[in-house]
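[User]
Protein folding is very new to me. Any chance you could explain this protein sequence and its structure tokens? I have pasted everything here:
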Amino acid sequence: MATLYAAGKTAQPQTASVTDPARGPRIRVLVTWVLLALTMILVNYKLIATMRFTDPDDALRLLQVRDLLAGQSWFDVHQYRIAAPEGVPMHWSRLVDVPIAGMILLLRPLLGTVGAEFVTVVAVPLLTLLCGMALLGRLAARWFNDEVVALSCLMIGLSPPVLCQFTPMRIDHHGWQIVLALTALSGLHAKDARTGGTVIGVALAALLAISIEGLPLTALFLGLCALRGLRAPASRFDWLFSATLGLAFGSAAIFFGTRGTYDLVTHCDAISPVHLALFAWVAAGAAALRFAMPRTLLGQLAGLGVMGLGAAAILFGVAPECRGGAFVMLDPLVKRY
């Protein structure tokens, strides 16, 4: 009987516990985000309750979204409340307006315009923070364990210069700059050069469309892709080719999708046709390196040098005024303050 009983027990089917390996990191990211979000809401409660923006750009961003929802053209980002009636071109990307306007439209039938705007200006920065923490947690999970995922996300809360860009009512573009930079960094860790390079290029294109301040970071990422090609000639500069192609096509798509042909004048503080030409040149140079594939290191460095010099010639030859920096075309008083 004992033998039969033991046999019966072993004959029962064994059910293996199947768990999602990404479930642990996701939960840690979510828990850390909830703690940070609640803390920021409590710390900023008085500002939230009185709808008081800490930066004029956030208030002006909400006005731009209001004008869009009131019927201003998608391609027109002039602020007509300033220097009326002509207004001033803001050079602010509609990419940042999309989540704000989308949430207001979604909530307006339920909460009314005032209530929808109130919830949106609190929720959008916190959701942007969640995007950044998810990307950071993904990178940490790739190289370390679940505990490091939580600690990495928690470090955002211990980094005031970063965290302040995600506080409630901080609806300007700086939080999205951080998210897109982390997206490009995530692409740099991809296993496949084509996929990773494309992610890098498109993320940088969106980053530059939001703010021209991303140009140094763009040069850094493209430089790392070029370095990979120099260190591993067998890769045929696939990383650089995919990244520059994603940057060129991504920038053109975003430019014409958000700006159209409304403003084709050269601006030093925003992506303009001259920048699109620059990106196209760099992509063409990367393609030449990939398919010609110089065998010697000297030839590869010479090709990269031609790409860099040609890019500088396009930018400063077509727009020599931009030598003084991105904000050289602003009114001196505005540039100073």
Summary: The chain has 14 helices and two strands.
